[in-house]
Amino acid sequence: MPSHLHDEVHDCTELLRSALRDHDITLPSLGVDLPGLAGSYALPLVALGNCNTDTARRLTEALRKAAGR
Question: Which pTM does this prediction carry?
Fold first, then answer.
């Protein structure tokens, strides 16, 4: 896998973590999908992780607000 893709997935993950933090949202398992880095996928994957229902509701509210709904 080209190193720029490896760097990109890490950068993207941190940007997402920061944007979520701006809304007081934490996805505890947010990270780089390690099998995706080692596998033969065309692009590496970001693992969004698990969250509780309160976090899922806050994430839904933030997305709806950003979409103007």
Answer: 0.78
